Amino acid sequence: MSISLNSCPALVLNADYQPLSYYPLSTWSWKDALKAVFLERVNVVSEYDKYVRSPSIKFKLPSVISLKDYIPLPEKAAFTRFNVFLRDKFLCQYCHTSFKVEDLTFDHVLPKSKGGQTTWDNVVTCCRKCNTTKGNKLLTKTSFSLISNPYTPNNYELKEIGRLFPPNFLHQSWNDFLYWDSELEP
């Protein structure tokens, strides 16, 4: 069975051996990982059983790399659509249903037409159906109630929430560095 090079991403760890992010999981393509190795910006922690060759050298592809310089996680989380979805755990805050990212939007709790701002404290994750139904009405004028009130998370909270959503692909060599709630082998 032949493994495509594109199916060999490298898990990127900070200098403290923690993933830079959990959701999305911090990975680099095999090319970027190999380039960083040659530029001596990373340490190779683990490797695939897959090689690439130059005319004179054979290289094993890194599966886990750690940065040589520690990158501190900024305290303040960026206000992005995806981070709102992550804060709200991909749940519509009105119908309490979980959705894929592409099926979500966000809603202004206090509608923009009534003076609401596009801020952490006024925006919630919402499915398209609930968003259309609520429209520009105040919550008191609808049958909707929020699962939780919107708030400003920090990056550490978002990182912990991201750990609740493991990706579809996890290479075996990554398991010692990723901590999802999964059954441990004896």
Describe this protein's structure:
The chain is an alpha+beta fold. It folds into 2 domains: 68 residues, no CATH class; 76 residues, Orthogonal Bundle (DNA Binding (I), subunit A). Helix content is 17%, strand content 20%. The protein is built from 4 helices and 6 strands; from the N terminus they run ββαββαββαα. The strands form 2 sheets. The protein has a 4-stranded mixed sheet with strand order 2-1-4-3. Strand 3 and strand 4 form a beta hairpin. It is elongated and about 70 Å long. The protein starts with 9 loop residues before the first strand and ends in a 24-residue tail after the last helix. The model has no long low-confidence stretch (mean pLDDT 89).
Q: What share of residues are in beta strands?
A: 15-25%
Task: Enumerate how many helices there are, as a single number.
Answer: 4
The total domain count is: 2
Structural classification: alpha+beta
- Cα-atom Rg, whole angstroms? 21 Å
What's the N-to-C terminus distance?
A: 29 Å
- What is the correct CATH architecture of the largest domain? Orthogonal Bundle
Helix content: 10-25%
Average pLDDT across residues?
Answer: 89
Q: Based on DSSP secondary structure assignment, what is the total number of beta strands?
A: 6
Largest sheet features: 4 strands, mixed
Shape: elongated
Summary keywords:
20% strand, 2 domains, 186 residues, alpha+beta, four-stranded mixed β-sheet, two-stranded antiparallel sheet, single chain, 6 strands, DNA Binding (I), subunit A
